[in-house]
Amino acid sequence: MAEKLRWSVTGQIRSVLSVYVSLIAAVLYAASCNSDTETIANNISFHDKLSEYGLFKSGMSELNPEKGVEMFDIASPLFTDYAEKQRLIKIPDGQKATIDGNGLPLFPDGTIIAKTFYYSKSGNKKRRILETRLLILKHGKWNAATYQWNVMQTNANLLTSGAVVPIAFEYHSGIQRKLAYKIPSQNDCSSCHRSGDQLSPIGPKARNLNMTVTAEGKRQNQLDYFIKKGIFNPADLIAIGALPSYKDTTLDVAMRARAYFDINCAHCHQPAGAASQTSLNLGYSTSFEETGIDFNKQNILIRMSTMGAYHMPKIGTTVLDDEGVQLVKTYIKGLDSHLNQ
């Protein structure tokens, strides 16, 4: 009896110590991820009004692209407080982008990439546009800025320090939800878009563009469509990989979770990112053994499922991504089951 009691107490002590070790590791890991990084300055001056870039036809709130401006989609999008997004690209006349493996295409100088954030059904049941983020390539360097849409939804004004916008919107199946939406500052842009000492687009990598879309009234491969339109140079698309959609529940959980990490986390958690000093490398093509996922799996769950200063993703979220957290939980539970076999 005494022996059983001794082992029971020992087991409890080990359990408590394990919890403390996990918490200490989480705090140290969080501190390393939240350390300040130097802002990457722009080398251009942005216009005061979004309308000055000629991205939209008259009646900007309709979000109809102007001639020479192409809409595009990506297979796995960044989660931003359940906001919907329109993505546009404007390549200078007579210029073309070149596909460079699975990564970011080589865009010509003067390229503009725009992403507009909105809620289809806001408190008044109408679409509410909140912000448009611009990335402009000039003299071989990407520059970033955010524009906040005015109340009349007729234009958007350049921001320097970010903004908070209260918003009510229709959540799943008619459920109403409210939040304080955060429009990032230029410093925030540097945090997420950092690649070494420069900025770099996150979403429009070739493998994330390599998907079937509806363009000009028919279903077709998006990269092939851009080649036919003459804005991308011809390329061997068979050699290009395809990032899975993490929202596609017919796919393997591991594929979906890795795709989720790639778009939501890997822009920082990669060798040239803002969190390069951590033990995580979450790119989709990184081998599992080199990702650090197994070692950090409990910290990943804690940081994703708890709001506050140490929540991840660090920028662009004020509420939990319920579906994303559940996906990662399922994935990690599967890892534990596999490793315990």
Automatic annotation (TrEMBL):
GO terms for molecular function: electron transfer activity; heme binding; metal ion binding. Keywords: Heme, Iron, Metal-binding. It holds the Pfam family Cytochrome_CBB3. Residues 252-336 form the Cytochrome c domain. The keyword Heme applies. PROSITE patterns: CYTC. SUPFAM superfamilies: Cytochrome c (SSF46626). InterPro entries: Cyt_c-like_dom (IPR009056), Cyt_c-like_dom_sf (IPR036909). It comes from the Bacteria. This is C-type cytochrome. The keyword Zinc-finger does not apply.
